[in-house]
Amino acid sequence: MVILVLNCGSSSIKYQVIDMNDDSSKLLAKGLVERIGLPEGDLTHKPVGKDKFELHQPIPDHTTGISLVMKALIDPAHGVITSLDEVKAVGHRVAHGGEFFPQSCLVDEDAKQKISSLFEIAPLHNPASMQGILAIEQVLPGVPQVTVFDTSFHQTIPATNYMFAIPYKYYKKYRVRKYGFHGTSHKYVAKVGAELAGLDINHSKIITCHIGNGGSITAVLNGKSYDTSMGFSPLDGLVMGTRAGQIDASAVTFIGEKENMTYAEMNSMLNKKSGLQGMTELSSDMRDIDKAYREGNERAILARDMYYTRIKKFIGEYAAEMGGVDLIVFTGGVGENSVEMRQWVCSNMEFMGLKFDAAANDGVHGEDKILSAPDSKVKVAVIATNEELVIATDTYNLVK
């Protein structure tokens, strides 16, 4: 079954085409549509076994972008299928499913209404996903669609971990609670990491660290999410590229009052102007921070040390919550590629039975590998995440 996987952003579309069957999968192509709605848009199409194809033209909306993807897929020179009839299903990544969706689901009018009702608490992500769903209805009418939610994996978190200690009426009225994100990635790397480490995931204590420009850490107890660092929104938890992460709410209201900021301005400050960018005033990209760190930039040193320390603190917190840990997994753009971060976070952890293998860690970028010593009680692994494969698998199983 040929499945198209879409990850729609406000001005972009990431996609993969995967041929799925019961016991295997084959990537046919992947690509990216960027700068949707701007004067000049870009399509980069990468078919497996063929040369990359690029297109530069105005792309006014998501429907146009998806139409260009379809043309690329069936093009005689760089296409990977002969007809759009071969696409049997489309899987969408949707950031926020609220409490509606504990698992992936087929798209129908009820699902679309519920996704739309969450626009208010996921204004950057859910509207873009809905545009992708509506575009497919026009471009591939009648083809079944499946939505896979970042929040679904975290619906197993107990109330003691997802509730906030604020007046209960705000949960009843507005469903203000922890939802968690990156669930598709956490689910995938926990499973693959357990297999690599020789663990039975259904009887295990795993901490997954999805570290990138946005980042979150999840306690996975017996294969299910038990706690996670992101909260009501992706703002909470770790220090991130432009997000503040954990912060005393009174500090926020204090700054807002002193600076005469609106709620929207405070939200923008915390989400878009804080984190590594806000602390260093250099960049939100860890590669730039690493360079400044090595050059002795004091604020880069402080920001990176805070970034690393927050990761380590959550690992300790979740090990305590679960009564120990069998495996720690690193993934995401920074998690998969930063040798320094993995070593720093895992240093001085012998007290909890972790013996890190610095030689095994050296030079590891984007591959699946055990990074702990053979006699380490706590295993450490780096796993290259593959959210698209999870989306394709869920789509295949629901449609089949």
Report how far apart the termini are: 9 Å
Q: What's the rounded overall pLDDT mean?
A: 96
**Helical fraction:** 25-40%
Uncertain spans, ≥5 residues at pLDDT below 50? Answer: none
Summing up helix and strand content along with how strands pair, one would put the structural category as alpha/beta
Strand portion, in percent? Answer: 15-25%
Number of strands: 14
Shape: globular
Most strands sheet = 8 strands, mixed
Count of DSSP-assigned helices: 15
Q: What strand line-up does the widest sheet have?
A: 5-4-3-2-1-6-8-7
Q: Secondary-structure element sequence?
A: EEEEEHEEHHEHHHEEEHHHHHEHHHEEH
Radius of gyration, Cα only, in angstroms? 21 Å
* Assembly of the depicted chains: single chain
Q: What do these coordinates show?
A:
It is a single chain. This protein is an alpha/beta fold. The protein is 38% helix and 20% strand. The chain has helices at 62-74, 109-117, 126-139, 159-162, 169-174, 183-197, 249-258, 263-272, 275-280, 286-294, 298-322, 332-337, 339-346, 358-361, 387-399; strands at 2-8, 13-20, 25-34, 41-47, 53-57, 87-94, 105-106, 145-149, 205-211, 215-221, 224-228, 327-331, 369-370, 379-382. Strands 5-4-3-2-1-6-8-7 form an eight-stranded mixed β-sheet, with helices on both faces. The chain has a six-stranded mixed β-sheet with strand order 11-10-9-12-14-13, sandwiched between helices. Strand 2 (13-20) and strand 3 (25-34) form a beta hairpin. Helix 1 packs across helix 3, helix 10 (286-294) packs across helix 11 and helix 11 (298-322) packs across helix 13. The longest helix is centred in the last third of the chain and has 25 residues, at 298-322. The chain starts with a strand and ends with a helix. The model has no long low-confidence stretch (mean pLDDT 96).
